[in-house]
Amino acid sequence: MRLLGMLAGCALAVAATAQPYPSKPLKIVVGYPPGGSGDFLTRLAADEMGRDLGVAVVVENKPGAGGNIAHEFVARSPNDGYTILNATHMAVNRALYKELSYDPDKDFAAVSRIATGPTLICVNNTLPVKDLRELIAYARANPGKLFHASAGYGSSPHLASVLFESVAGVTFTHVQFKGGGPATQSLLAGDTQVNFATAPTVMGFVRAGRLRALAVSSREASPAVPGIPGAEQAGLPGYDFTFWFGLFVPAGTPPAAIQRLHAALAKGLAKPDVRDKIALQGMDARPSASPAAFEAEIKAEAPYWAKLVRDSGAKVE
Predict the structure, then answer these.
(1) Residue 310, pLDDT score
(2) Per the CB 3.0–4.6 Å rule, which of 30, 261, 277, 279 could disulfide with 42?
(3) 249 and 267 share a domain?
(4) Whose CA is closest to 251, among 112, 98, 74?
(5) Nearest-angstrom CA–CA distance, 106 and 96
(6) How many CA atoms lie within 13 Å of 190's alpha carbon, on the beta-carbon side?
(7) Is 200 helix (H, G, I), strand (E, B) or coil?
(8) Range of 158's domain?
(9) Domain assignment present for 4
(10) Nearest-CA neighbor of 101 among 78, 82, 74, 81?
(11) The whole model's pTM is what?
């Protein structure tokens, strides 16, 4: 009887491990609060992947510390394919923070990029500038007197503004917020005057005439943000900045699970209506060709992001 019991237990264990993936809900963690591009893309990806995977995919916002809280949470999660991270390039935080509680190179496996896009250079309506040339002239005449609403140290909007300062020869006073949503609210209230924002955060206010968008941060105009000039056309040649968001899982996650997640995301991002939703938010759907291709892109880009942070002089203890 004892032998039969042992055999039955082994059979149950084999059956449990043979369950198809996924067999329960998944979670995508994002290190930013609701209202920004990271949150928007996370929820869109969760909806589309859930349809293809046949299980619920829930979103959990863990904002703070430039995404590090979310990064650490996922790095310490089981590597079973059920906890996913949506993040930007982690080389930024490696260069920005003196110490990290996780290793960006060793603690994660890449799944796929979701989308790319420029930031929008926006100003409060009361600021007496009509275009980018006038903003640069005003900032040069008033060094440090324009308050920039930043989405937090190391965020894409923060780095876009740092590069802008370097190329344009201007200096802003940076005010750090915990995400693009709170930063934009500060700009709307007039507490700050300038904001480099991801499109989902500000496009509604721009269309409503509550904020003025002077240019996008990419060299050329973006088809996803019609009517707003690129930096070169607007008067700042040599300035070119775009960002991306992508999915990661804890290192050691089974390759089959990673491939399944990649396929589900790519299928969702191939739908015209999904691509249109992303375009309406000022971004382009850009799934990676494969997890390996995404990993290679991350490694190739790492020196660029690290240099941008170093050049900014920003450090967080």
Answers:
(1) 81
(2) 30
(3) yes
(4) 74
(5) 18
(6) 4
(7) helix
(8) 119-234
(9) no
(10) 74
(11) 0.81
**Residue 165 Cα to chain centre, angstroms:** 22
Last residue in a domain, options 171, 200, 234: 234
Q: What is the Cα–Cα distance from 307 to 312, expressed in whole angstroms?
A: 8
**Is 106 in contact with 248 (CB distance < 8 Å)?**
no
- Give me the pLDDT at residue 270, please: 98
**113 plus 206 within the same structural domain:** no
**Which sign, positive or negative, has the C-alpha torsion 124, 207, 277, 181?**
positive
Angle between helices 255-269 and 272-280 (to 10 degrees): 80
Q: Please report which confidence band the pLDDT of residue 5 belongs to, taking 50, 70 and 90 as the band edges.
A: very low
pLDDT per residue over 55-91, tens digit each? 999 999 998 888 899 999 999 999 999 999 999 999 8
Chain mean pLDDT for the chain:
90
One domain for residues 253 and 113 = yes
Please indicate, yes or no, whether residues 129 and 74 belong to a single structural domain of this protein. no
Give pLDDT, residue 79.
Answer: 97
